[in-house]
ZFYVE26-like TPR repeats domain-containing protein
Amino acid sequence: MLDLCEDSQVVGQTCLILCDQLSEQLNSPDCEKDRLLFVNIIQQLLLYGKYRLENCTEDTFTSIQDCETYLSRVDLLQKLLFSGIDLKYQRISLSTFTDTQKSQQIRDKLIEYDRIELAIEVATKCNVDAVPAWVNWGLTLLKIGKYNEAKEKFRYCMTPTVKEENTEAKISSPRNPLPSNHSILHKIITVLESGAPSKQRELITKYNELKNRIKKPQTARTDPSSPKSAFSFSPSPKQNLIKQHSLDTSRYMQCMYYLQCYGTPDDLVKFWLRHNLIEDALRYILNAQLDVTVFQTVITAVLKTNQLQKFKEILLKIDPTQKKWNNFLLSTCKYFNNSKKYDLLLNFQEFMKDYARAGFTCIKLFAKAEDHQTQIRFLDEAKAYFVKASELEQPVNSPNDINKYMRGVNLQKEVSLFLMGQKNVKPLDITLFGAKDQKTRIAEIVLEMSNFDLAWKIMQEYQLEFTQIYKTAFKALALKKQTQAITNIMKGIRGMMMMEDEDWDELLLIVIGVYMNEGNDKNVAENFVNQLRKPTSKITGLILCKKLNKAYLEAVSTLEKTKSSDLTIIHTISSEARKTGNPHVADLCEQYISSHSN
């Protein structure tokens, strides 16, 4: 009937349709005995259709390709139908293999039944990923200890991160592994770490059955290069390696093979750390010149397992001079500093003999301390480190800098000891190691607590604006009516002859104003008026104390002595007299102004 049709294009398409329909019938129980016949008919139809299309003058390239594709899948269809695997959840036909999702389902079902070779054939002929099949095959071989066979299988599904060069395996792009490798490598290492290969009879039997089915190795998707020596890097003698971890020699070497072939430096380091091979991890980091973040991974691990002392001993064992570790240690210190892990930072700085920076770290710990005793302890430690820094053969800091740091520590200790001696005074949240405003505030606080000498030391050491500090302190003391404290501080100032008359009077006028306006203590205010030095300041003080009559007389006396024509002070007294209801003084002022206005 097909011979009667002259249109070869139609014949070819009809053959494809008929073959697909016939392949559908292969799923029927009625055709179970005639499956081979059906398969033979399908093959003949496809060959006939291809023949007609090849002799057609029109462009039939696509249709010919379809015939060839169907022919390649007829054998696959036959194998599936006679595989004995339950595929009733879907009807299999030639068109099934053109559906990617259905092909993947068939592949996964075959993997589930351990028909790995057939699963790979399905994946290859249907253009779906064969990696799951190769992975499953390789893992099965690992579990029964067939390590060499497993390596062969994994080469089809993993991309090596090493290349052959002068017989030495070198890791390429260590920080950027292919995403496909990571999950597979994790499964491989997990199997190898989980225990010795199982010797159970069913696993051995399963392997033998699998081996018997294999007649010819499949062609790999790619031709991955395999390193000539997978163990070219040896961080330390093998004997030492094997003694320290829990794996047997064979499994350990298999782990090293896969990690070096398909893993990254991070994978290697983490593996060694899991098995407490700290020295091997450190040697590898140093020799491979890895990033400092990998080194910090080791530090994190040793801290979790409380092996910091062992870690430092290994560093010294590898390089007693520590020069090779310098960049790693400095970066680690920077990390600890940024994350405010000052205890660890101090530990490493002491290990590095970086005493000056250790002193500064003690200062940071001092600032975080919540009680005076702890603060003083850290200050003592800081001083001790600065002393050590000055005694180094080649000190990093100059002697002048070290002396400056020590003076600051000593002064802060005096402040802390002084505050500790006061009742109910908690540590300050500011220190002399802070900015200028913090130093200024501490001087004010100390002065308010009547420690003139200590406040003076602070002002001198840091060259602070002492007049403003005294103003703030005097105002605070006046508000608390601590007259004796003010008097004592003034004695100290007077004894050191350190203040000009204008600054002296300005301080007293602040005190007088506070006592009059907020303290309502006129007698004390008047006593301070007597200590004013300049006549104009005394007049201002009398005005503040509402002693307007005395202020008028003092003003007139001053004007007469100086023969000044500036009547501003008389106007001020007159204005204040009218505000306070003192007409007598106001009239006197007006008369004086009137008589001296010319």
